[in-house]
Amino acid sequence: MAADLSQIVKAYDVRGVVPDQWDEALAELFGAAFVKVTDAGAIVIGHDMRPSSPGLSAAFARGAARQGADVTLIGLCSTDQLYYASGALDLPGAMFTASHNPARYNGIKLCRAGAAPVGQDTGLGEIRELVERWSDEGAPAPAATEGTVTERETLKDYAAHLLSLVDLSAIRPLKVVVDAGNGMGGHTVPTVFDGLPLDVVPMYFELDGTFPNHEANPLDPKNIVDLQARVRAEGADLGLAFDGDADRCFVVDENGDPVSPSAITALVAARELAKNPGGTVIHNLITSWSVPEVVRENGGTPVRTRVGHSFIKEEMAKTGAVFGGEHSAHYYFKDFWNADTGMLAALHVLAALGGQDGPLSSLVAAYDRYAASGEINSTVADQAGRLAAVRAAYENRDGVTLDELDGLTITAADWWFNLRASNTEPLLRLNIEARDETTMQKLRDEVLSLVRA
Questions:
Q1: What span, in angstroms and rounded, lies between the C-alpha atoms of 418 and 105?
Q2: How many CB atoms lie within 10 A of CB 164?
Q3: What is the pLDDT of residue 406?
Q4: Where are the domains of the chain?
Q5: Which part of the chain is the Alpha-D-phosphohexomutase C-terminal domain (predicted)?
Q6: What's the 3-state SS for the chain?
Q7: Whether residue 200 has pLDDT greater than 90
Q8: Which fold has domain 14-153?
Q9: Does the structure show a pLDDT above 80 at 423?
Q10: Average confidence (pLDDT) over 84-103
Q11: What does the alpha-carbon distance between residue 162 and residue 84 come to, in Å, rounded to a whole number?
Q12: Residue 349 has pLDDT above 70, yes or no
């Protein structure tokens, strides 16, 4: 009977519980299908520290090689290190990771040569169809000449490339606490930061896919509590927290207070526009008003997109944008094949902080201008009905504009909010921003009363 992949093939990647939802036999079929759909003569594969990752990635490599593709294995790596390899070697790539998901999960992030994303409409749907068919009918016949499988070290080259993009030569010494969450930041940070004038205080650098200390998801405030306390205890200049596959980076200031990813987006945008005058910067529709303001103030053109890396990368390629940022702390760089890398964003923060004498809280204040709610999730039985109720409550108010680029966005002179449905859960996600805290709180309570009615 054909495998049902509807639960594990998502919009942008493959992700599910191992071995309940997928296993090495399916991984081998995914490898074969990836080669068929991309028509690749060679591919590159990396994996994170989860216990199931080495076996799954080796099975994928076998499936790919049997279809005639030469396979380069780069072993343990962060997701952005795999993107580096795909870009530098000009090969399609596969990264085995479930990012910040719990230990029982694993997944695959796929890209074409040059780190171009593979999503539901750009090959992932076709890959799913082939794997489902082969799981029923049997694996495809091997190629007349099977491909080779070789290993290659890329960590030092990845680090050197990132360091070539940010000038850290003149920064003052900084004390930085880094929480790797037992994820791949523990693998990449020591090499990338080596030789920089940084006093690094490491937290949870041991690679452990069972996540013994906390979930490797810094977007959830409870997972940065340890980092915040350590920054204060050490008197550090800042703290950095990476997620499980280390493609996202969160920042806390010298007081241990979280720095909004929108403020980091604005700060990095200003730096990228200094290098690329008049450039375009992409931001998704739930980033702060500060982002397009700062982009314009620095001579750039802001472009607003839907939430999600495939939309950002598509718009980056279309507009030739120099940089893109999301409020989830994904940061995309033209100099990095339009792919996302939290590490490069972290280097920009270190360069900006180390290039002046003030504390990080003062530096980012210029980029953090409004009161924001953060993302508030509500479990609802009828997403469409609740969205319609909120729309009806606001659409006829004076001075209000409405758009449906991604969910429902309502904008007034002093505030905006976005309400959108989760693709995978019965949730509505609410983000609000206002010119002051009182207005934000009042609007938040008003909208939530409609959502949760």
A1: 30
A2: 9
A3: 94
A4: 14-153, 157-258, 261-341+356-365, 371-451
A5: 375-448
A6: CCCCCCCCECCCCEEEECCCCCCHHHHHHHHHHHHHHHCCCEEEEEECCCCCHHHHHHHHHHHHHHCCCEEEEEEECCHHHHHHHHHHHCCCEEEECCCCCCCCEEEEEEEEHHHEECCHHHHHHHHHHHHHHHHHHCCCCCCCCCCCEEECCCHHHHHHHHHHHCCCCCCCCEEEEEECCCCCHHHHHHHHCCCCCEEEEEECCCCCCCCCCCCCCCCCHHHHHHHHHHHHHHCCCEEEEECCCCCCEEEECCCCCEECHHHHHHHHHHHHHHHCCCCEEEEECCCCCHHHHHHHHCCCEEEEECCCHHHHHHHHHHHCCCEEECCCCCEEEHHHCCCECHHHHHHHHHHHHHCCCCCHHHHHHCCCCCEECCCEEEECCCHHHHHHHHHHHHCCCCCCEEECCCCEEEECCCEEEEEEECCCCCEEEEEEEECCHHHHHHHHHHHHHHHCC
A7: yes
A8: Alpha-D-Glucose-1,6-Bisphosphate; Chain A, domain 3 (3.40.120)
A9: no
A10: 96
A11: 9
A12: yes
- Architecture of the domain delimited by 371-451: 2-Layer Sandwich (3.30)
Q: What distance in Å separates the CA atoms of residue 223 and residue 214, rounded to the nearest whole number?
A: 6
Q: And the tokens for 145? A: 């000449």
